[in-house]
Write a structure and sequence with these properties.
The chain has 3 domains: about 1-90, no CATH class; about 95-130; about 145-210. About 55% of the residues lie in helices and about 20% in strands. It is built from 6 helices and 5 strands; from the N terminus they run H-H-H-H-H-E-E-E-E-E-H. A 5-stranded antiparallel β-sheet has the order 4-3-2-1-5. Residues about 135-140 have low confidence and may be disordered.
Length: about 220
């Protein structure tokens, strides 16, 4: 290889290496801001639409300005109002009247035929995620185990979500098998407890391993 070609090849190799390094530096930052943007949009959206209705009916001071410059919305107002509403609800449900009201609403939704299965399932799922990593022995998603993979010595990471004792005394484990990179999506399977492989990972370590496609070492 002559000198110009060697220099050109070295330059391309250098550029390629720097491009890869830059990509892996920027990607986590970009994904983080993308997730934060989605979260902001999700929280801000509902009340922002309510605020727009008030503005287009000129029920808020300065409505004309917001219609002309911000398409009828107040930037960030829906987000801040949602956070304030959540704080107020959190305060209210901790007093006697709030607890009674919450019990009434819960009881009402549990009695509506079409709403009951949807509300009940969503409520149970959120209660399970609230207890992730909790110290209570009955907490869901508290234990991490391995399950045998269909070949060789391969293993899959799974979270134990429930245990059920059958009439013959054997115990079945309900397992959630997450899919990378989201630990919130995956499969639910049932295996006898004696077929599970012990795992020393904590819930936090297993979650980091899944989120990073295995790039982050999660040593027990």
């Amino acid at each position: 290889m002559n000198e110009p070609n060697r220099i050109l090849g070295t330059s391309f190799a250098w550029l390629r290496d720097k491009l890869i390094v830059g990509f892996f530096v920027i990607l986590p930052i970009a994904i983080t801001f993308w997730i934060l943007h989605l979260l902001y949009t999700w929280i801000n959206g509902p009340l922002d639409r309510v605020i727009q209705i008030f503005i287009f009916h000129h029920l808020i001071p300065g409505s004309s300005y917001f219609i002309e410059h911000h398409e009828g919305s107040i930037p960030g107002a829906g987000f801040l109002l949602t956070l304030a509403l959540l704080i107020i609800v959190g305060v209210l449900v901790e007093n006697w009247l709030g607890k009674k009201l919450l019990i009434f609403i819960d009881s009402f939704l549990q009695r509506v035929p079409v709403v009951r299965p949807i509300y009940g399932s969503i409520k149970q799922a959120f209660e399970a995620f609230q207890s992730i990593g909790g110290s209570n022995s009955s907490s869901s998603f508290r234990q991490v185990v391995y399950v045998p993979y269909p070949f060789g010595k391969a293993r899959l990471i799974a979270f134990v979500t429930n245990r059920v004792t059958r009439p013959d005394g054997t115990v079945d484990c309900y397992l959630f098998l997450p899919t990378a990179p989201s630990p919130l999506t995956g499969f639910v399977i049932i295996l006898p407890e004696n077929e599970l492989i012990p795992c020393e990972l904590t819930v936090e370590q297993a979650t980091k391993l899944i989120l990073s496609f295995g790039l982050v070492s999660a040593k027990p």
